Amino acid sequence: MKAVGLTRYLPIQDPEALVDVELPDPEPSARDLLVRVHAVAVNPVDTKVRSPKDKVEPSPRVLGWDAAGVVEAVGPDCTLFKVGDPVYYAGDITRPGCNSQLHLVDERIVGKKPSSLDWAEAASIPLTALTAWESFQDRLGIDPTGDHAGRSLLIIGGGGGVGSIGIQLAKLWGLRVIATASRPESEAWCRELGADHVIDHRKPLAEGLAAIGLQTVDFIANFVDTAAYWDTMADLIRPQGRIVGIVETKTPVNVTRLQGKSAGFIFEMMFTRAMFKTEDMQAQHTILDQVADLLDTGRLRGTLRTRLGTIDAENLRRAHAQLESGHTAGKLALEGWG
After folding, report:
1. Does domain 129-267 have CATH number 3.40.50.720?
2. Which family does the record claim for this protein (predicted)?
3. pTM confidence score
């Protein structure tokens, strides 16, 4: 099968950073689906895993954690899907990624493809939707049925992939959403997705909140940089409020800043359930099916903004470079094999 992989971890400008390769076709076992991949999306996790380091892989490593395709074969223990089903999923970071024509994935973290979206649009949803949904419901404790309606949520990084779906989910769940953005196009994108307010994260966030009559917020979802905003978040969270972050800290943070407010901080990592085979691993299947229904009924909209052609090394290098530039709104996707 065709695939895109790496053996060395290089700057994305190096043509060897990602290369076209031929690999053996994988075979499903247990609860694995063998999916024929029609489209993939690219996320910051791809660039982080690929980032330069002193390491050489003995055989090509395939990245990619967002895909849509058709079930080609099923393992003997599968019960949720059958051959021919169109599916979408983010996958498991401990296994080979989806930048390959055929890909193995545990059915418990796979959802039915939204019928209203094309392949590229569908591939752009899973990782970000799972991250936002788990951030809000499982980490912040927000009720999707509306029990927290009217509460304030500050989304740091509203224009990115997770922020783009997060704004929509938060509005759907009844929250007052304040998103941050810095460029006119990303501000417009956040408003288009339903944000009640957009403030400039190049300026002190306290000033932006004060301008809309807020001193603190009930919840904070930081989808950009945990350490850089730590002290700001400690200042802006209300007493007994909750904060979720998705980016690891490279420098120490002072957790006692939250003590006086009895405020909570928790990390969200979309891959946790698959990595540790948690008892509730199949929750991701349920979430993705719910998201598909919301998309197909028009209550959510897709977040794909840029199509970069077919799935090959050159186009994936372009996608990585664009993400690393820090000026991406919405999602990037590639579709089909050249």
Report:
1. yes
2. Belongs to the zinc-containing alcohol dehydrogenase family. Quinone oxidoreductase subfamily.
3. 0.96
